[in-house]
UniProtKB/TrEMBL annotation:
Key words, A-Z: Cell inner membrane, Cell membrane, Cell projection, Chemotaxis, Cilium, Flagellar rotation, Flagellum, Membrane, Signal, Transmembrane, Transmembrane helix
Function according to Swiss-Prot or TrEMBL: Controls the rotational direction of flagella during chemotaxis.
Organism (species): Marinobacterium alkalitolerans
Record localization: Cell inner membrane; Cell membrane
Bilayer disposition of the protein: Single-pass membrane protein
Signal peptide range in chain numbering: 1-22
PANTHER family registered for this protein in UniProt: FLAGELLAR PROTEIN FLIL (PTHR35091:SF2)
Principal place of residence: membrane
Record InterPro entries: FliL
The keyword Kinase appears for this protein: no
Superkingdom field: Bacteria
Protein name: Flagellar protein FliL
Statement: the UniProt record of this protein carries the keyword Cell membrane: yes
Assigned protein family: Belongs to the FliL family.
Amino acid sequence: MARRIALILAMLASLLFQPALAEEETKEDYINYIELKPFVTNFGGPGPIRFLKAEVTIQVEDPAAHHAVNAHKAHIRNDLVFLFSGVMEEDIGSVAAQQVLAERALHAVQQLLKEETGDTHVSDLFFTSFVTQ
């Protein structure tokens, strides 16, 4: 009888600790994407007016990061508009140059979030659409 009670208690204990283990796995496996509204800005300095339209998606790896990005979305958009409007033709003329611009944008977002929250929060930034005219 004592063996049965011990076995039942062991089974109950394993059931109690199982949700905690599942929660830890979920935090490690969490990846989410936040799509920002499209950016449309002029660029290129003096000369003919050029326009850039970029759709940006930000990758975060935990719910706190998702919340931080949403809380500072207006500030993020502001900084990215200034970054995009300051580029020149040679800064976006090739795929490699666009990748460099994406890295600069990622660094700008991470720096902003580090100043505002104390953590960079964002793990990657993608251009899901990039058009110049």
